[in-house]
Amino acid sequence: MNTNKFFEGVIRQENSKTTFCDITELKEPILVDNRFLNRCLTGDRVLIKVKNGKFGFVQKLIERPSIVLTGKIELVNNLAFIRPWTKGFFKDFFVDTKDINSVLDGDVVEFEIKDWRKNHKSPKAKVLRKVYISDEQYMIHRLNLPSKFSDSVIDELKDIEIRANDISNRVDLRSQNIFSIDPSTCTDIDDALSMEKTSFGYRVGIHIADVSHFIKAGSELDKEAYKRSFTYYFPNFNIPMIPQKLSSDLCSLIEGEDRLCVSTIINIDNNLNIIDSNIVRSVINNKKKFSYEEAENHKNDPSSPYFSILNDLFNVGASIRKKWFVDELVLNRPEIMWVVEDNNPIKMKIKNRLSTMDLIQSWMLITNKLVTHKIESLSKNPLWVYRIHNEIEENNLDILKRELNILGKNWDDKISDINNIKYFLNSDISEIFSEILIKKFRPAKYSPNKTGHFSLGVDDYTHFTSPIRRYSDIIVHRILLNSIIGKDVYSANLWKDCEWISEQEKKSQKVENYYNSLMGIKFTKDIKYAINGIVTRVGDYNITIKSEFLIDMYIRYDENVIQNDDLTFSYKNNIYKIGDMINIKIEKIDNEKNQIYVKINY
Fold this sequence. Notes:
Low-confidence stretches: none
Strand content: 25-35%
Number of strands: 30
Number of domains: 5
Shape: globular
Protein backbone atom coordinates (compact mmCIF):
# COMPACT_ATOMS: atom_id res chain seq x y z
CA MET A 1 0.00 0.00 0.00
CA ASN A 2 1.37 3.38 -1.01
CA THR A 3 1.67 5.96 1.75
CA ASN A 4 2.05 9.68 1.16
CA LYS A 5 3.04 12.06 3.92
CA PHE A 6 3.77 15.79 3.92
CA PHE A 7 6.77 17.37 5.62
CA GLU A 8 8.83 20.53 5.71
CA GLY A 9 12.42 20.06 4.63
CA VAL A 10 15.49 21.69 3.08
CA ILE A 11 16.66 21.00 -0.48
CA ARG A 12 20.26 19.86 -0.99
CA GLN A 13 21.68 19.21 -4.47
CA GLU A 14 24.73 16.91 -4.50
CA ASN A 15 25.35 17.23 -8.25
CA SER A 16 23.44 18.04 -11.43
CA LYS A 17 21.59 14.70 -11.26
CA THR A 18 21.18 13.96 -7.54
CA THR A 19 19.03 15.99 -5.14
CA PHE A 20 17.94 15.27 -1.57
CA CYS A 21 15.57 16.83 0.89
CA ASP A 22 16.72 16.82 4.52
CA ILE A 23 13.76 16.39 6.89
CA THR A 24 14.23 16.70 10.65
CA GLU A 25 11.64 14.03 11.49
CA LEU A 26 13.21 11.42 9.21
CA LYS A 27 16.51 9.59 9.77
CA GLU A 28 17.47 9.38 6.10
CA PRO A 29 17.38 12.14 3.45
CA ILE A 30 14.67 11.82 0.81
CA LEU A 31 15.64 11.47 -2.84
CA VAL A 32 14.02 14.04 -5.14
CA ASP A 33 14.01 13.59 -8.90
CA ASN A 34 14.98 16.93 -10.50
CA ARG A 35 11.73 16.84 -12.50
CA PHE A 36 9.83 17.23 -9.22
CA LEU A 37 11.84 20.06 -7.64
CA ASN A 38 9.17 22.60 -8.61
CA ARG A 39 11.83 25.28 -9.37
CA CYS A 40 13.45 25.00 -5.95
CA LEU A 41 17.18 25.25 -5.23
CA THR A 42 19.74 24.22 -2.63
CA GLY A 43 18.93 25.76 0.76
CA ASP A 44 15.24 26.30 0.03
CA ARG A 45 12.79 25.31 2.76
CA VAL A 46 9.92 23.50 1.07
CA LEU A 47 6.71 21.59 1.63
CA ILE A 48 7.33 18.13 0.24
CA LYS A 49 5.22 15.05 -0.31
CA VAL A 50 7.09 11.85 0.59
CA LYS A 51 6.01 8.64 -1.12
CA ASN A 52 6.77 5.26 0.47
CA GLY A 53 9.22 6.93 2.84
CA LYS A 54 11.81 7.22 0.05
CA PHE A 55 10.86 9.60 -2.76
CA GLY A 56 10.00 13.28 -2.60
CA PHE A 57 7.79 15.62 -4.63
CA VAL A 58 8.16 19.33 -3.85
CA GLN A 59 4.75 20.94 -3.39
CA LYS A 60 5.77 24.55 -2.84
CA LEU A 61 8.55 26.89 -1.73
CA ILE A 62 8.15 28.02 1.88
CA GLU A 63 11.29 30.14 2.30
CA ARG A 64 14.37 30.93 0.23
CA PRO A 65 17.43 31.99 2.26
CA SER A 66 19.14 35.26 1.46
CA ILE A 67 22.59 34.15 0.32
CA VAL A 68 25.34 35.54 -1.89
CA LEU A 69 26.55 33.19 -4.61
CA THR A 70 29.70 33.32 -6.73
CA GLY A 71 30.12 32.54 -10.42
CA LYS A 72 31.34 33.68 -13.81
CA ILE A 73 29.14 35.78 -16.06
CA GLU A 74 28.77 35.21 -19.80
CA LEU A 75 27.45 37.93 -22.12
CA VAL A 76 26.23 36.63 -25.48
CA ASN A 77 24.17 38.71 -27.94
CA ASN A 78 22.69 41.00 -25.27
CA LEU A 79 21.90 38.03 -23.06
CA ALA A 80 23.61 37.35 -19.75
CA PHE A 81 24.02 34.11 -17.84
CA ILE A 82 25.93 33.23 -14.69
CA ARG A 83 27.42 29.81 -14.21
CA PRO A 84 27.48 29.36 -10.43
CA TRP A 85 30.58 28.16 -8.63
CA THR A 86 28.99 27.98 -5.19
CA LYS A 87 28.63 24.39 -4.01
CA GLY A 88 25.17 22.90 -4.48
CA PHE A 89 24.06 25.05 -7.43
CA PHE A 90 24.03 23.48 -10.88
CA LYS A 91 21.59 25.57 -12.96
CA ASP A 92 22.76 28.57 -14.98
CA PHE A 93 21.16 31.83 -13.81
CA PHE A 94 19.66 34.32 -16.28
CA VAL A 95 20.39 38.03 -15.68
CA ASP A 96 18.32 40.92 -17.06
CA THR A 97 20.46 43.66 -18.65
CA LYS A 98 19.32 46.11 -15.95
CA ASP A 99 20.75 43.77 -13.30
CA ILE A 100 24.22 43.26 -14.81
CA ASN A 101 25.71 46.11 -12.76
CA SER A 102 28.30 47.12 -15.43
CA VAL A 103 30.33 43.88 -15.26
CA LEU A 104 31.98 42.45 -18.37
CA ASP A 105 31.94 39.07 -20.08
CA GLY A 106 34.06 36.57 -18.16
CA ASP A 107 34.08 38.52 -14.88
CA VAL A 108 33.80 36.63 -11.61
CA VAL A 109 30.82 38.09 -9.76
CA GLU A 110 28.87 37.82 -6.56
CA PHE A 111 25.12 37.62 -7.14
CA GLU A 112 21.83 36.95 -5.43
CA ILE A 113 18.79 34.95 -6.49
CA LYS A 114 15.84 37.08 -7.61
CA ASP A 115 13.18 34.51 -8.51
CA TRP A 116 12.37 31.51 -10.65
CA ARG A 117 9.10 32.07 -12.42
CA LYS A 118 6.83 29.43 -13.82
CA ASN A 119 7.59 28.44 -17.43
CA HIS A 120 11.13 29.91 -17.18
CA LYS A 121 13.91 27.39 -17.80
CA SER A 122 16.41 29.22 -15.58
CA PRO A 123 16.23 31.11 -12.28
CA LYS A 124 16.90 34.85 -12.39
CA ALA A 125 19.78 36.56 -10.62
CA LYS A 126 20.99 40.06 -9.87
CA VAL A 127 24.71 40.90 -10.00
CA LEU A 128 25.91 42.54 -6.80
CA ARG A 129 29.53 43.24 -7.67
CA LYS A 130 32.58 42.11 -9.59
CA VAL A 131 34.98 40.07 -7.48
CA TYR A 132 38.71 40.70 -7.80
CA ILE A 133 40.33 37.46 -6.78
CA SER A 134 43.74 35.84 -6.65
CA ASP A 135 44.51 32.48 -8.23
CA GLU A 136 44.06 30.94 -4.80
CA GLN A 137 40.61 32.45 -4.36
CA TYR A 138 39.75 31.55 -7.96
CA MET A 139 40.58 27.88 -7.38
CA ILE A 140 38.73 27.82 -4.05
CA HIS A 141 35.59 29.38 -5.53
CA ARG A 142 35.66 27.62 -8.89
CA LEU A 143 36.38 24.11 -7.65
CA ASN A 144 34.79 24.33 -4.19
CA LEU A 145 38.08 23.67 -2.42
CA PRO A 146 38.43 24.01 1.34
CA SER A 147 39.54 27.43 2.55
CA LYS A 148 39.60 28.43 6.20
CA PHE A 149 39.71 25.96 9.05
CA SER A 150 36.66 26.02 11.33
CA ASP A 151 36.69 27.62 14.78
CA SER A 152 36.45 24.18 16.39
CA VAL A 153 39.64 23.08 14.60
CA ILE A 154 41.46 26.28 15.57
CA ASP A 155 40.35 25.83 19.19
CA GLU A 156 42.00 22.39 19.32
CA LEU A 157 45.29 23.92 18.15
CA LYS A 158 45.57 26.28 21.12
CA ASP A 159 46.99 23.74 23.55
CA ILE A 160 49.10 21.76 21.09
CA GLU A 161 52.85 22.02 21.58
CA ILE A 162 55.88 19.80 22.00
CA ARG A 163 56.33 19.14 25.73
CA ALA A 164 59.18 17.60 27.68
CA ASN A 165 57.24 14.40 28.38
CA ASP A 166 56.56 14.02 24.63
CA ILE A 167 60.32 13.71 24.16
CA SER A 168 61.29 11.68 27.23
CA ASN A 169 59.73 8.41 26.06
CA ARG A 170 61.33 8.50 22.62
CA VAL A 171 64.60 7.31 21.12
CA ASP A 172 66.82 10.41 21.16
CA LEU A 173 68.50 10.92 17.77
CA ARG A 174 69.19 14.64 18.12
CA SER A 175 72.97 14.19 18.07
CA GLN A 176 72.90 12.49 14.66
CA ASN A 177 73.70 14.32 11.41
CA ILE A 178 70.15 14.37 10.07
CA PHE A 179 69.22 16.52 7.06
CA SER A 180 66.33 17.07 4.68
CA ILE A 181 66.14 17.57 0.90
CA ASP A 182 63.04 19.21 -0.55
CA PRO A 183 61.89 21.76 -3.14
CA SER A 184 63.26 25.21 -2.37
CA THR A 185 59.79 26.58 -1.48
CA CYS A 186 58.87 23.69 0.83
CA THR A 187 57.67 24.61 4.33
CA ASP A 188 55.99 21.30 5.26
CA ILE A 189 59.06 19.08 5.61
CA ASP A 190 57.89 15.59 6.49
CA ASP A 191 61.01 13.48 5.83
CA ALA A 192 64.71 13.62 6.61
CA LEU A 193 67.67 11.24 6.26
CA SER A 194 70.79 10.17 8.12
CA MET A 195 73.57 7.72 7.31
CA GLU A 196 76.64 6.41 9.09
CA LYS A 197 79.26 3.84 8.18
CA THR A 198 79.49 0.80 10.44
CA SER A 199 81.81 -2.16 10.81
CA PHE A 200 79.42 -4.27 8.72
CA GLY A 201 78.39 -1.62 6.16
CA TYR A 202 75.90 1.23 6.69
CA ARG A 203 73.14 2.35 9.00
CA VAL A 204 70.51 4.54 7.31
CA GLY A 205 67.77 6.44 9.12
CA ILE A 206 64.58 7.61 7.40
CA HIS A 207 62.84 10.03 9.75
CA ILE A 208 59.17 10.83 9.10
CA ALA A 209 57.18 13.50 10.93
CA ASP A 210 55.01 11.95 13.66
CA VAL A 211 51.79 13.69 12.67
CA SER A 212 49.57 11.09 14.35
CA HIS A 213 51.03 12.17 17.71
CA PHE A 214 49.31 15.55 17.30
CA ILE A 215 46.17 14.52 15.41
CA LYS A 216 44.14 12.16 17.56
CA ALA A 217 41.52 9.91 15.97
CA GLY A 218 38.04 11.43 16.24
CA SER A 219 39.22 14.95 17.05
CA GLU A 220 38.03 17.97 15.06
CA LEU A 221 41.52 18.19 13.54
CA ASP A 222 41.26 14.58 12.48
CA LYS A 223 37.80 15.01 10.95
CA GLU A 224 38.95 18.00 8.91
CA ALA A 225 42.17 16.28 7.78
CA TYR A 226 40.11 13.25 6.71
CA LYS A 227 37.67 15.48 4.85
CA ARG A 228 40.48 17.17 2.92
CA SER A 229 42.70 14.06 2.68
CA PHE A 230 45.41 15.89 0.71
CA THR A 231 47.29 19.18 0.52
CA TYR A 232 46.81 21.02 -2.78
CA TYR A 233 50.06 22.52 -4.09
CA PHE A 234 50.37 25.39 -6.56
CA PRO A 235 53.38 27.51 -7.61
CA ASN A 236 52.58 30.49 -5.38
CA PHE A 237 50.29 29.04 -2.68
CA ASN A 238 48.95 25.82 -1.22
CA ILE A 239 45.78 24.64 0.50
CA PRO A 240 46.99 22.51 3.43
CA MET A 241 45.41 19.33 4.76
CA ILE A 242 46.19 20.37 8.33
CA PRO A 243 46.56 23.89 9.80
CA GLN A 244 49.86 25.69 9.30
CA LYS A 245 50.68 25.60 13.01
CA LEU A 246 51.17 21.87 12.43
CA SER A 247 52.04 21.60 8.74
CA SER A 248 54.66 24.35 8.66
CA ASP A 249 55.70 24.41 12.31
CA LEU A 250 55.23 21.68 14.94
CA CYS A 251 55.14 18.75 12.50
CA SER A 252 57.56 20.17 9.93
CA LEU A 253 61.17 19.05 10.36
CA ILE A 254 62.50 22.60 10.53
CA GLU A 255 66.25 23.10 10.53
CA GLY A 256 67.66 23.46 14.05
CA GLU A 257 64.40 22.54 15.85
CA ASP A 258 63.64 19.44 17.92
CA ARG A 259 60.88 17.48 16.23
CA LEU A 260 58.94 14.27 16.88
CA CYS A 261 59.37 11.53 14.28
CA VAL A 262 58.78 7.93 13.40
CA SER A 263 62.23 6.68 12.38
CA THR A 264 63.02 3.60 10.34
CA ILE A 265 66.58 2.51 11.10
CA ILE A 266 68.04 0.19 8.46
CA ASN A 267 71.23 -1.86 8.79
CA ILE A 268 72.89 -2.66 5.45
CA ASP A 269 75.89 -4.90 4.78
CA ASN A 270 78.86 -4.12 2.52
CA ASN A 271 77.16 -5.99 -0.35
CA LEU A 272 74.30 -3.51 -0.05
CA ASN A 273 71.80 -6.03 1.29
CA ILE A 274 69.41 -5.03 4.08
CA ILE A 275 70.25 -7.03 7.21
CA ASP A 276 67.42 -5.76 9.40
CA SER A 277 65.34 -2.70 10.22
CA ASN A 278 63.69 -1.21 13.27
CA ILE A 279 60.85 1.29 13.55
CA VAL A 280 60.81 3.62 16.57
CA ARG A 281 59.21 6.80 17.78
CA SER A 282 62.05 9.31 18.00
CA VAL A 283 63.05 12.90 18.55
CA ILE A 284 65.41 14.45 15.99
CA ASN A 285 67.02 17.76 15.15
CA ASN A 286 67.36 18.57 11.46
CA LYS A 287 70.93 19.83 11.08
CA LYS A 288 70.55 21.06 7.51
CA LYS A 289 67.62 21.89 5.23
CA PHE A 290 68.72 21.42 1.62
CA SER A 291 66.86 22.32 -1.52
CA TYR A 292 67.29 19.74 -4.29
CA GLU A 293 69.59 22.13 -6.12
CA GLU A 294 71.74 22.81 -3.04
CA ALA A 295 72.03 19.11 -2.28
CA GLU A 296 73.01 18.43 -5.90
CA ASN A 297 75.81 20.98 -5.65
CA HIS A 298 77.13 19.39 -2.44
CA LYS A 299 76.86 15.92 -3.98
CA ASN A 300 79.04 17.05 -6.89
CA ASP A 301 81.58 18.97 -4.77
CA PRO A 302 84.38 16.76 -3.31
CA SER A 303 85.27 19.53 -0.85
CA SER A 304 81.77 19.54 0.69
CA PRO A 305 81.34 17.87 4.11
CA TYR A 306 78.20 16.26 2.64
CA PHE A 307 79.91 14.92 -0.49
CA SER A 308 80.46 11.37 0.76
CA ILE A 309 77.18 10.90 2.59
CA LEU A 310 75.08 12.18 -0.32
CA ASN A 311 76.88 9.95 -2.82
CA ASP A 312 76.68 6.95 -0.50
CA LEU A 313 72.98 7.51 0.07
CA PHE A 314 72.43 7.83 -3.66
CA ASN A 315 74.39 4.71 -4.60
CA VAL A 316 73.15 2.47 -1.79
CA GLY A 317 69.53 3.56 -2.32
CA ALA A 318 69.76 3.05 -6.09
CA SER A 319 71.22 -0.44 -5.62
CA ILE A 320 68.48 -1.58 -3.20
CA ARG A 321 65.78 0.05 -5.32
CA LYS A 322 67.00 -1.78 -8.40
CA LYS A 323 66.78 -5.13 -6.56
CA TRP A 324 63.47 -4.47 -4.81
CA PHE A 325 61.69 -2.69 -7.67
CA VAL A 326 62.92 -4.70 -10.65
CA ASP A 327 59.83 -4.04 -12.74
CA GLU A 328 59.32 -0.36 -11.84
CA LEU A 329 58.03 1.67 -14.78
CA VAL A 330 59.59 5.11 -15.24
CA LEU A 331 57.71 7.32 -17.68
CA ASN A 332 59.45 9.86 -19.87
CA ARG A 333 57.06 12.80 -19.44
CA PRO A 334 58.56 16.26 -18.95
CA GLU A 335 57.11 18.08 -15.94
CA ILE A 336 56.06 21.72 -16.28
CA MET A 337 56.90 24.36 -13.67
CA TRP A 338 55.10 27.71 -13.84
CA VAL A 339 56.72 30.94 -12.70
CA VAL A 340 53.80 33.14 -11.62
CA GLU A 341 53.62 36.86 -10.88
CA ASP A 342 50.41 38.80 -10.14
CA ASN A 343 48.28 35.73 -10.95
CA ASN A 344 49.85 35.39 -14.40
CA PRO A 345 52.38 32.84 -15.65
CA ILE A 346 55.40 34.76 -16.92
CA LYS A 347 57.58 31.74 -17.64
CA MET A 348 57.18 28.03 -18.20
CA LYS A 349 60.11 25.83 -17.23
CA ILE A 350 60.75 22.13 -17.61
CA LYS A 351 61.73 20.65 -14.27
CA ASN A 352 65.23 19.23 -14.49
CA ARG A 353 65.48 15.76 -13.01
CA LEU A 354 68.31 15.92 -10.46
CA SER A 355 70.04 12.92 -8.93
CA THR A 356 69.07 14.14 -5.45
CA MET A 357 65.40 13.78 -6.43
CA ASP A 358 66.09 10.14 -7.29
CA LEU A 359 68.02 9.80 -4.01
CA ILE A 360 65.00 10.87 -1.96
CA GLN A 361 62.56 8.88 -4.07
CA SER A 362 64.60 5.69 -3.65
CA TRP A 363 64.59 5.86 0.14
CA MET A 364 60.90 6.74 0.29
CA LEU A 365 60.08 3.73 -1.92
CA ILE A 366 62.26 1.46 0.23
CA THR A 367 60.70 2.74 3.47
CA ASN A 368 57.12 2.32 2.22
CA LYS A 369 57.93 -1.27 1.37
CA LEU A 370 59.78 -1.92 4.64
CA VAL A 371 56.92 -0.79 6.87
CA THR A 372 54.61 -3.12 4.93
CA HIS A 373 57.07 -5.97 5.60
CA LYS A 374 56.88 -5.02 9.28
CA ILE A 375 53.09 -5.08 9.52
CA GLU A 376 52.95 -8.36 7.59
CA SER A 377 55.47 -9.90 9.99
CA LEU A 378 53.13 -9.10 12.89
CA SER A 379 50.01 -10.66 11.33
CA LYS A 380 49.21 -13.11 8.54
CA ASN A 381 46.22 -11.04 7.43
CA PRO A 382 46.99 -7.52 8.62
CA LEU A 383 44.55 -4.66 8.64
CA TRP A 384 46.50 -2.37 6.34
CA VAL A 385 46.26 0.34 3.71
CA TYR A 386 47.92 -0.96 0.58
CA ARG A 387 48.79 1.29 -2.32
CA ILE A 388 47.57 -0.65 -5.36
CA HIS A 389 47.70 -0.14 -9.11
CA ASN A 390 45.97 -2.53 -11.46
CA GLU A 391 47.38 -3.92 -14.68
CA ILE A 392 46.24 -2.46 -17.99
CA GLU A 393 42.84 -3.89 -18.89
CA GLU A 394 42.72 -6.18 -21.90
CA ASN A 395 40.79 -3.82 -24.18
CA ASN A 396 43.21 -0.96 -23.40
CA LEU A 397 46.15 -3.27 -23.99
CA ASP A 398 44.74 -4.12 -27.44
CA ILE A 399 44.45 -0.41 -28.22
CA LEU A 400 48.03 0.15 -27.04
CA LYS A 401 49.28 -2.59 -29.38
CA ARG A 402 47.44 -0.98 -32.32
CA GLU A 403 48.88 2.41 -31.44
CA LEU A 404 52.36 0.90 -31.41
CA ASN A 405 51.75 -0.64 -34.82
CA ILE A 406 50.83 2.74 -36.26
CA LEU A 407 54.05 4.11 -34.74
CA GLY A 408 55.94 1.39 -36.62
CA LYS A 409 56.59 -0.80 -33.57
CA ASN A 410 55.43 -4.31 -32.69
CA TRP A 411 54.45 -5.80 -29.35
CA ASP A 412 56.38 -8.99 -28.62
CA ASP A 413 53.88 -11.60 -27.40
CA LYS A 414 56.75 -13.93 -26.45
CA ILE A 415 57.68 -11.76 -23.47
CA SER A 416 55.62 -10.38 -20.58
CA ASP A 417 53.55 -7.20 -20.77
CA ILE A 418 55.82 -5.51 -18.23
CA ASN A 419 58.94 -6.29 -20.26
CA ASN A 420 57.30 -4.98 -23.43
CA ILE A 421 56.41 -1.75 -21.66
CA LYS A 422 59.89 -1.36 -20.18
CA TYR A 423 61.42 -1.91 -23.62
CA PHE A 424 59.38 0.83 -25.26
CA LEU A 425 59.94 3.23 -22.34
CA ASN A 426 63.65 2.96 -23.13
CA SER A 427 63.28 3.10 -26.92
CA ASP A 428 63.42 5.90 -29.48
CA ILE A 429 59.63 6.45 -29.04
CA SER A 430 59.92 6.77 -25.25
CA GLU A 431 58.23 10.17 -24.99
CA ILE A 432 55.19 9.54 -27.21
CA PHE A 433 54.85 6.03 -25.75
CA SER A 434 54.81 7.48 -22.20
CA GLU A 435 52.08 9.88 -23.29
CA ILE A 436 49.79 7.19 -24.70
CA LEU A 437 50.63 4.64 -21.99
CA ILE A 438 49.55 6.88 -19.11
CA LYS A 439 46.05 7.06 -20.61
CA LYS A 440 45.70 3.26 -20.54
CA PHE A 441 45.97 2.88 -16.77
CA ARG A 442 43.29 3.32 -14.17
CA PRO A 443 44.57 5.55 -11.34
CA ALA A 444 46.44 3.99 -8.43
CA LYS A 445 44.34 3.86 -5.25
CA TYR A 446 44.22 2.77 -1.62
CA SER A 447 42.78 -0.55 -0.50
CA PRO A 448 42.86 -2.98 2.47
CA ASN A 449 43.07 -5.70 -0.20
CA LYS A 450 46.58 -6.69 -1.31
CA THR A 451 46.35 -6.86 -5.11
CA GLY A 452 49.71 -5.40 -6.11
CA HIS A 453 51.14 -2.25 -7.62
CA PHE A 454 51.70 -2.93 -11.31
CA SER A 455 53.70 0.18 -12.23
CA LEU A 456 56.09 -0.33 -9.29
CA GLY A 457 56.28 -4.06 -9.90
CA VAL A 458 55.58 -5.01 -6.25
CA ASP A 459 52.62 -6.30 -4.24
CA ASP A 460 53.63 -5.10 -0.75
CA TYR A 461 53.53 -1.32 -0.87
CA THR A 462 51.90 1.49 1.11
CA HIS A 463 52.13 5.24 1.70
CA PHE A 464 53.88 6.06 4.97
CA THR A 465 56.34 8.86 4.23
CA SER A 466 54.17 11.99 3.77
CA PRO A 467 51.73 12.26 6.69
CA ILE A 468 51.68 16.09 6.63
CA ARG A 469 50.09 16.12 3.19
CA ARG A 470 48.33 12.72 2.82
CA TYR A 471 45.73 11.37 5.22
CA SER A 472 46.38 7.78 4.11
CA ASP A 473 49.81 8.01 5.74
CA ILE A 474 48.28 9.09 9.07
CA ILE A 475 46.11 5.96 9.06
CA VAL A 476 49.16 3.82 8.25
CA HIS A 477 51.12 5.41 11.12
CA ARG A 478 48.28 4.70 13.57
CA ILE A 479 47.95 1.07 12.52
CA LEU A 480 51.69 0.42 12.48
CA LEU A 481 52.60 2.13 15.75
CA ASN A 482 49.72 0.52 17.64
CA SER A 483 50.46 -2.91 16.15
CA ILE A 484 54.11 -2.75 17.20
CA ILE A 485 53.12 -2.30 20.85
CA GLY A 486 50.22 -4.77 20.69
CA LYS A 487 47.31 -2.31 20.83
CA ASP A 488 44.07 -2.42 18.84
CA VAL A 489 44.96 -1.22 15.39
CA TYR A 490 41.90 0.49 13.89
CA SER A 491 38.27 0.92 14.83
CA ALA A 492 36.87 2.68 11.74
CA ASN A 493 35.69 1.19 8.44
CA LEU A 494 38.95 0.84 6.53
CA TRP A 495 37.28 -0.08 3.24
CA LYS A 496 35.15 3.05 3.39
CA ASP A 497 38.13 5.20 4.37
CA CYS A 498 40.28 3.86 1.52
CA GLU A 499 37.47 4.50 -0.95
CA TRP A 500 36.99 8.08 0.31
CA ILE A 501 40.71 8.93 0.22
CA SER A 502 41.06 7.44 -3.27
CA GLU A 503 38.19 9.62 -4.50
CA GLN A 504 39.77 12.68 -2.89
CA GLU A 505 43.03 11.83 -4.65
CA LYS A 506 41.20 11.81 -7.98
CA LYS A 507 39.82 15.23 -7.08
CA SER A 508 43.31 16.53 -6.22
CA GLN A 509 44.59 15.31 -9.60
CA LYS A 510 41.70 17.03 -11.37
CA VAL A 511 42.51 20.23 -9.46
CA GLU A 512 46.16 20.02 -10.52
CA ASN A 513 45.16 19.41 -14.14
CA TYR A 514 42.67 22.28 -14.01
CA TYR A 515 45.30 24.67 -12.66
CA ASN A 516 47.83 23.66 -15.32
CA SER A 517 45.15 24.15 -17.99
CA LEU A 518 44.33 27.58 -16.54
CA MET A 519 47.99 28.60 -16.61
CA GLY A 520 48.31 27.17 -20.13
CA ILE A 521 45.45 29.36 -21.34
CA LYS A 522 46.87 32.48 -19.69
CA PHE A 523 50.31 31.73 -21.13
CA THR A 524 49.23 31.06 -24.73
CA LYS A 525 46.04 33.13 -25.19
CA ASP A 526 47.78 35.96 -27.06
CA ILE A 527 49.91 33.77 -29.35
CA LYS A 528 48.99 34.53 -32.95
CA TYR A 529 51.76 32.63 -34.72
CA ALA A 530 51.75 28.96 -35.73
CA ILE A 531 53.24 26.37 -33.38
CA ASN A 532 54.03 22.68 -33.58
CA GLY A 533 52.37 19.79 -31.79
CA ILE A 534 52.16 16.00 -31.73
CA VAL A 535 48.94 14.01 -32.13
CA THR A 536 48.50 11.97 -28.93
CA ARG A 537 44.86 10.90 -29.18
CA VAL A 538 42.14 10.63 -31.81
CA GLY A 539 38.95 10.69 -29.77
CA ASP A 540 35.28 10.55 -30.69
CA TYR A 541 34.74 14.25 -29.95
CA ASN A 542 38.07 15.87 -30.73
CA ILE A 543 41.76 15.27 -31.39
CA THR A 544 44.31 15.87 -28.63
CA ILE A 545 47.55 17.62 -29.57
CA LYS A 546 50.51 17.93 -27.22
CA SER A 547 51.80 21.37 -28.19
CA GLU A 548 55.44 22.43 -28.14
CA PHE A 549 54.59 24.19 -24.86
CA LEU A 550 53.67 20.74 -23.44
CA ILE A 551 50.08 21.96 -23.10
CA ASP A 552 47.24 19.84 -24.44
CA MET A 553 45.25 21.53 -27.21
CA TYR A 554 42.31 20.22 -29.20
CA ILE A 555 41.15 20.04 -32.80
CA ARG A 556 37.41 19.78 -33.36
CA TYR A 557 35.88 17.79 -36.17
CA ASP A 558 34.22 19.70 -39.03
CA GLU A 559 33.74 19.38 -42.78
CA ASN A 560 37.54 19.45 -43.26
CA VAL A 561 38.63 17.43 -40.22
CA ILE A 562 37.14 13.93 -40.33
CA GLN A 563 37.77 11.01 -37.99
CA ASN A 564 38.69 7.82 -39.83
CA ASP A 565 39.03 5.57 -36.78
CA ASP A 566 40.43 5.80 -33.23
CA LEU A 567 44.00 6.15 -34.56
CA THR A 568 43.77 8.39 -37.63
CA PHE A 569 41.94 11.40 -39.03
CA SER A 570 41.87 13.22 -42.36
CA TYR A 571 42.32 16.90 -43.15
CA LYS A 572 41.81 18.00 -46.76
CA ASN A 573 42.66 14.54 -48.12
CA ASN A 574 45.76 14.21 -45.94
CA ILE A 575 45.75 11.42 -43.34
CA TYR A 576 47.27 12.00 -39.91
CA LYS A 577 47.91 9.50 -37.13
CA ILE A 578 49.00 9.31 -33.52
CA GLY A 579 52.62 10.41 -33.23
CA ASP A 580 52.52 12.77 -36.23
CA MET A 581 53.94 16.27 -35.85
CA ILE A 582 51.57 18.93 -37.16
CA ASN A 583 51.55 22.71 -37.42
CA ILE A 584 48.66 24.44 -35.62
CA LYS A 585 47.25 27.87 -34.77
CA ILE A 586 45.08 28.77 -31.80
CA GLU A 587 41.48 29.19 -32.93
CA LYS A 588 39.39 29.55 -29.78
CA ILE A 589 39.76 29.42 -26.00
CA ASP A 590 36.96 27.93 -23.91
CA ASN A 591 37.41 29.57 -20.52
CA GLU A 592 34.68 27.48 -18.92
CA LYS A 593 36.16 24.11 -19.86
CA ASN A 594 39.74 25.43 -19.72
CA GLN A 595 40.44 24.08 -23.18
CA ILE A 596 42.39 25.55 -26.10
CA TYR A 597 41.04 24.73 -29.56
CA VAL A 598 43.36 24.92 -32.55
CA LYS A 599 43.17 24.49 -36.30
CA ILE A 600 45.67 22.87 -38.63
CA ASN A 601 47.87 25.48 -40.26
CA TYR A 602 48.10 24.20 -43.85
